[in-house]
Design brief:
Helicase, Ruva Protein, domain 3; four-stranded antiparallel sheet; Glutamyl-tRNA Synthetase, domain 3; 19 helices; alpha+beta; elongated; 45% helix; Rossmann fold
Length: 497
Amino acid sequence: MGGVRTALYNYLYAKQNGGDFILRIEDTDSHRFVPGAEEYIIESLRWCGIVPDEGVDENGKVVETPSERHPHAPYRQSQRRGIYRKYAEQLVEGGYAYYAFDSAEELNALRAEAEGAGQTFIYNHETRGKLRNSLTLPAEEVRRLLAETTDWTVRFKIPENETVEMDDMIRGHIEVNTSTLDDKVLWKRADELPTYHLANIVDDHLMEITEVIRGEEWLPSLPLHYLLYRAFGWERPRFAHLSLLLKPVGNGKLSKRDGDKMGFPVFPLQWTNPEGETSRGYREDGYFPEAFVNMLAMLGWNPGTEQEIFSLPELVKAFSMDKVQKAGAKFNPEKAKWYNKEYLRMKSDEELAQLFVPVLAAHGVQAEFDYLLKVVHLIKERATFVADFWDIAWYLFKAPDSYDEKDAAKFWKEENYSLAFKVADFVAAYGGAWEKPALETALEEYIRGNEWPMGKVMNCIRLALTGSGSGLGIADITILIGKDEFARRIETAKIKI
């Protein structure tokens, strides 16, 4: 959800300002590569209607070759690996970075030693002068190591005791002293791939990115990115760091575990990880994509009005970064359901009837489309999801084959069902208009005219028609199933209850 919201805000901002929304696959961390993740991201965005201007083609494939429409291809960073080393070495030549030859074992030993002394080891201006790098080794040794070994990296040389002044579109002015920063790795000889820091700065520059809207987990990296832009002599994009999505209850970041515990999805689509663990998705749970997008947009942004329902074009028009909140947005699963309910109500009976067809098929039921239109029109105000239609009105498609025991004990008593049978005879002989208002009035007049207990008689009839004491109005049910089916269900109840 958090990733989709970030993409959505980027999309809204780009479209509102006449810009382009670019999808770039950042897959340079081989240790964190997840099979299927790229396809999942693309499908999720397409389901939401968040369509990139660059990065994917009409078929949802990542573009690998530059073209007029996709001038900055390829868009997978792993396919751009030949680009980054040049820029890493440019930083070294300019004195902004250096080659580091410390092995993983050596660094782990230093971390363990510092931890044993109650400290934390940081590769920075205080320690780099004592370590194996191009700042401390003779030039000849550096050349030899670069030529003969493959476990070296390029690290950025953080300036000592300098204040980095930054501006965030959401958080305003920020200042950080470089003494708190470490010399981050920018490029690794072992796999010839950059880290996020170098790859993103280089690609954002080459792809002419003017605004970067990302999660607040990247806020600690902003000073480094400012320094990288300065080192290259490039114009910086503007940055905005979005707040976290928070748990519905308690404090902290919303997680998959929260969804599992409280019974709601945290993924846009169902996701199965490499270990075979499947997580629920909003699509598979029956949410409309426009409801999901609308709900996400309001998690951290407020239009400043009472309006809560926005189509995607309306969001583009209304969105503004100055109304994105700094504080975390607490997720409310019931509000998510409310959005879906509102969008369901706005859909036409024809569209809902079409969506209802596969639900019926899953229950082995087929029905005339005109009949479905009548059913949907009658029950859609009661539903949150299309799947609810079956739970609400299954008895409009087949007769009950069992009856709720508690309701039967409560309502199916001789003094009640003897009157219900007389009402059945009245319905069979009814010759008035076959529409709800007329039949409803006729039934009420007949029952009250005989001074029978309205509630007891009607609940008795409803039990025979639906299998329980709850459900739609008797007139509604009768108009839909017809006189003959009404009579059959009353007769069956006589036998079975």
